[in-house]
Amino acid sequence: MEKAITVLPGDGIGPEVMKGTLRVLKAIESRFHHRFTVTEMPIGGNAIDETGNPLPPETIEQCKKSDAVLLGAVGGPKWDGMEQRPEQGLLRIRKELNVFANVRPVKAFGPLADIAPLKPALLENVDLVFVRELTGGIYFGQPKERKGSDEAVDTLYYHRKEIERVVKKAFVLAASRKKKLTSVDKANVLESSKLWREVVDETAKHYPDVKVEHMLVDNAAMQLVRNPAQFDVIVTENMFGDILSDEASMITGSLGMLASASLSEEGPGLYEPVHGSAPDIAGTNAANPLGMILSAAMMLRHSFHMNDEADAIELAVQEVLNANFRTGDISSNKDKVSTTDQVVEQLIYRL
Length: 351
Ligand code: ATP
Ligand code: MG
What we know:
The model has no long low-confidence stretch (mean pLDDT 96). The protein is of the alpha/beta class. It has twelve helices and twelve strands. The strands form two sheets. It has a ten-stranded mixed beta sheet, sandwiched between helices. α10 runs antiparallel to α11 (307-322) and α11 packs across α12 (340-350). It starts with a strand and ends with a helix. It is globular, with a radius of gyration of 20 Å. It is 40% helix and 21% strand. Adenosine-5'-triphosphate binds at residues 13, 73, 75, 255-256, 275-278, 280-281, 287-288, 291, 327, 329.
């Protein structure tokens, strides 16, 4: 297959983890006989340096005409206090691509049990996915204002259509996995949550083989640390998803391992690691490239329907960890720390 990928390396460790990821994609190309056309474009701090704009129009245009977008990370102390912020580039590209569903897998990698904050017994069989609504809810609802010195208001607004499209994505995902969907809300107090629940129940009729449960958000926060293995797909609104997915990302104790996809109805998906630009380790060949590489695997699976290819990468990641090649962030033995490049080498060797 031929696919066009726009690559936005960004700032900090972004370019380092992207470099390794592109080598992995080259290995996939030759093993599975595909052609990936890669076009690199600026975003974030480096785009501010080059053009004065964290999201230049050429970058938007290139992203929109490609089949998928891979992003490293943006930001860093260099741009602190500037009028133009690197993070604006990220928020705006999400809006431009209309990616309303943020998908974040959380999986326990067996060999990493020694660095996870939860007991190993609780981590067995943890393989869940968050689907977070990304473009609506309380972060965007109007009115949103400060009224004088003593009052402020935010609005949690959802239209049925906004809920339907993200809930549908979650059902499709659940149907392709363990066929269980947990919808998280606060329907005992919030009107928007009652509408959310209604839409989930209506949509469920079209997916009879998916088992649906509703869970209140306070209970979900507790269940995620009490027994995370009970979950398959979790769908929720923007703010609940923001908070719970960060909580869940710590189940495995390894920020550098986590991947994400932000999906729209029709256009290209945006794939990026969960971690940020990590300025403290940038340029030292110490960054864990696996979150970025697993994000590329999600791209192959979700945007290109290349399941065997994505499986091959995930298996190779597992094998690299089994062989105990780890960057500093996931190492429990400071005498044996691998560099970014070594981890990439090991992975490609296994591919
Ligand atoms: P941002 O605002 O961009 O999210 P942040 O400071 O909140 O930045 P990160 O940049 O993700 O968060 O970094 C948090 C900590 O985790 C830092 O100490 C960083 O070095 C470490 N870290 C993040 N990503 C990685 C990675 N891929 N490999 C190794 N360490 C990482
Ligand atoms: Mg952060």
